[in-house]
Amino acid sequence: MKYLCLLFLILISKISAQTKISGIVFLENKQPASRANVILTDLKDNIITFVFSNKDGSFLLNTSNFGKFNLQISAMGHMKKSIPVSFIKKNSVIDLKTIELETDKVKEIKEVVITRTTPIKLKKDTIEYNAQSFSNGTEQNVEELLKKIPGITIQNDGKIKFGNKEVERVMIENDDLFERGYQTLTQNMPSKPLDKIQILKNYSKNKLLKNIEDTERIALNLTLKEDAKGKWFGNILLASTSYKEDMRQGKINVMNFTKRQKVYLLMNANNLGLNEMKGVEYLINPSSENEVENVGTNINTLSIINLHQKNFLFEDKRTNFNNDKLASLNYIYNFKTDWKLKFVTIFNDIENRNYISSFYKFNYEGLNFNNIEDKTWKQNNRNIVGKLELLKDFKNDSNILFYNKVSSLNENNNNIFLFNEQLNNQTGVNQLFTNENKLVYTKKIDSSKALVAVARYIYQHRPYNFTDENDVFQYIINNPNAKKLNQVIDSKMNFGGAKISYLKKYSDNRSFEIQLGNEIRKDQLSSELSVFDLYNQRINFDNRQFINDINFMQNNLFAQGKYHKKNKRWSYGVTLLNQLISSDLNDDKTSGFNISPSINVGYENRRTGNFSLNAGRKFSTASINDMYINYIYQGNRNFKQSDVDFSILPDYNVGFSYSVGELMSEYFKFNINYFRSEDYLSNNMIVNPNYTFNQVILVKNNSTLSSNLELRKYIKFLKSRISIIGSHMLSDYENSINNQPLIKTEFSNLKTGFEMKSGFTGFVNYELGYEWAFNKIISEVNSNNYKDQKGFINFYFSLNSVLKIESFVEYYKFGNTDQKTTQFWDVKVNYNYKKYNFNVYLQGNNLLNSNSITKYSINNISESLYTQRLMPLHVVLGINKNF
Amino acid sequence: MQIFGHIKNFIFFILLINFNFVNSQSKNIIEYDYTFAHMQNIKSFIISDQTNSYYFFASDPKASYKTLVESDFTSVNPYHVYDYNYANENIYQRVYTVPQNVKQPISKIASEKLNNLNWKITNESKQILGYKAFLATTNFRGREYLVWFTKDLNIEIFPWKLKGLPGVILEFEDKDGFIKGVAKTISLNSNDEFPKKVLSYFSKNASETVMPFKKLIELENEVLQEDMNKAIAALPPGVQYEVPNIREMSLERSFEWQTEPKKP
Q1: Which of A594, A759, A828, B264 has the maximum number of C-beta atoms within 10 A of its C-beta?
Q2: What is the pTM of this model?
Q3: Are A590 and A662 in contact (CB under 8 A)?
Q4: Which domains, and CATH codes, for chain B?
């Protein structure tokens, strides 16, 4: 019964659990202690509760806990008092009455300084954001979340900018899966798994070069929530027009990331005109970055002729009649032993059709003719690329990177041309096989010095075989039976290069770099042309003029020094490149020594403005495409041949730029550049109504002067920014027609226009702009001018956080054409089902159904009108779901 | 008028006495390594004598209280300076973000009464500079704060407005990693005086008219709103910007008098 009572008592006290402690705190001098700390702790010194004493020193402390406690009372300059208290009863009140605190005599006089000796590491070059605090749950992908981060903007092509600088890399958990093609990741990865977004300033790809390399690069690193690691997630997109237009898109992205292993799989197919190759292009073309970790800065994909013409004047979505399929796999594995393995593979099958009709009018020295052409270009392109990369970090501050990249391209062309109503078919295939190997060794000597050695080997092989059905050879060899021609080209390139660089950073503001290296490149090119009659019987003729067999070797031994210095306002940079270039073109040997200096000086001052001045001299060399002695048929009734040997082409440039003000409020920018080639490659055209022979010739002195101007101001009462934009380009060049003396031609292009954009934070925003372009050509034989105009007005409605409507209107008016104007109107409505993690969109493209657009162009001997067929009106319904 | 002038002088005189008295007390100084958003390598300082507590920043990463004294406090950021008065529990701060169209003169000081924040004290503890520090958390004006404080110094010192803990805050950060301060040095019973430069911001002239804190926020918001409009308008065509809370990058993201704290 007694125990039961106690139990009952305890139970009751646990339920209605309030115990009170009160008292009044005085100091030694009998003054009441206001705001003294009164802290109730358990016997392990954990804080249960606390109060501050009132002005009169009184306090009242409530607690619901039971047991033995200490009440600690303290005030500044006084000894802490600790009073043991215990409560076992409910609603008990302990009144401690008066508590006096003694003056702390020791502490009062003695000054005590406690300091940390170990430096606290506060990340210097990293800005970190919590993904969650910027998310409202409607973001479909990482890109939409990044848009909300202060300082980050997303460009139209998916490239990310932080401030004014383009982000170079986007990494996942410190692993770089996509290199320059990071928009694949940011546009497709769901944002939900993200934990932190880190902005890395002064980023170095090679972590050993961090703070040694003179870099202002920016990279992003995305970290994942713990529970997202090792999970499969991704998105799926399906979109389609009605069955009548028969256009579709399907896309699936699947990914799985752990600290150790990262996998990303992408599949994509569309015939909606979307170019989904942008994210993988970086992998297809060899890198030509001029940096310590690369050698071979002017290596491009080998290309002798081009059997396809894609439209570049208008956006892909208007003119890309396509049927594309793309699959890619990106994989990274981090071994425990500091090895990293990276594997990327791409497969794509792309079809592009381009429809152009053109009118060409030639007029020179009594030769007058018009050609009317109708061309359907169709190309099928199959590409397989695989890249395997290995990276090993050693303990002694060094690392080694090796990669091997293999790619195979198969291109099929099937073009249908109507030349003055005569049917000409062109069919052809070409392949490209490439193999590239690179080895980089980096040794960090100390915190300010490093050594980088790189070796690279590239092999490219590109054979062509194509047939043209046309009457060109009826005129050339004077044989009416010549109906077809076939050309076989074989081209090979071998490149080997090695370079060693030493980097030294004297201070944050002063750095030095020296590079020594050698590059050797061998090109082999052979071509042969045959002519056939209607029955595919070969027609014999003296084809020596149409056969090439060229061996070209170029060796470049170089040393380059770079020095950079900066102080508060001024910055200086000097680069000096010494090159010993030797060449061997079919046993014709040359050798020469060149010095290419360049300097730049910059000055920064917010009040007076910033300017920079740069000047440099450099030497470029003629390539294999400029040196074949006999004709190679280029397609399109064009032949090309060269009269020049190996040549070194010196040029120099001077540039100046100035800017003042703040981009957001009031800003002015101006720059001017002058470029002059002392020797350059031009051509001599031997023109015939039915075909053209082009000869590469060496000409002296051409120059280009270009300038740009931008003036922008924020207008407060409109809450809008207005910009005035102007640019001017003036160039002169010389060429020759039909072996006549050189004709000097001057071409000028002046563009002027304005742009406005609103900064409303409400539900709507607009942007609009207009531009006039004045083109003028003056030559001894012909002068002409014309004017092009274009304008746009776009609206963005954000009706609420889930419904968005966008409207885009474009307007074009090209001078010297019959077509008066062309307008486009596109609308997109996007609805977000936050709850189910998906969004639905309805997109109307080319709602005004403009079916073609015509543009005029001129050169010194001819005028042309191009009419480009456009993708007709179509409405797409799409759904995008994250999982 | 004359009388009023006398009274004013008299009050000033009393203030002066009080001042001297205050000055004569020994000070406690805490130096923090501090980061705020993009800004790093900042130092923040508290100098307190339990009547007033001054909180201010220096943008020199190598600064210590000693070097500040030697350099006459030249690297002190003149805009972010706070004066907490223990007696009336008011905090005074500088007014500097003012829209262009606001008529001058305008008060240079704003103030608000600081209430004790609603802290949750945990049993988690660690040693900081030799003191046992407990982890406590609270929500304040749109941010969740995690602080480590010690009750073993017998005084109450807090940076900025993180009031209401029975002790000294030695580390503080917000959950988003936006703000972080780590005590580097504690000087107890220092003979240093309150820095004249810091005092001058709260001198009689400056504090003649004190702006209510709400008004300060009103003015600040007006400027921030315009900055946001400018930032959106400055983007290239085709580039859209998601509009976050205009105070996203401010220390105080939202306020208790707003019905609904804006989330982006």
Answers
A1: A759
A2: 0.84
A3: no
A4: 24-218 (2.50.20)
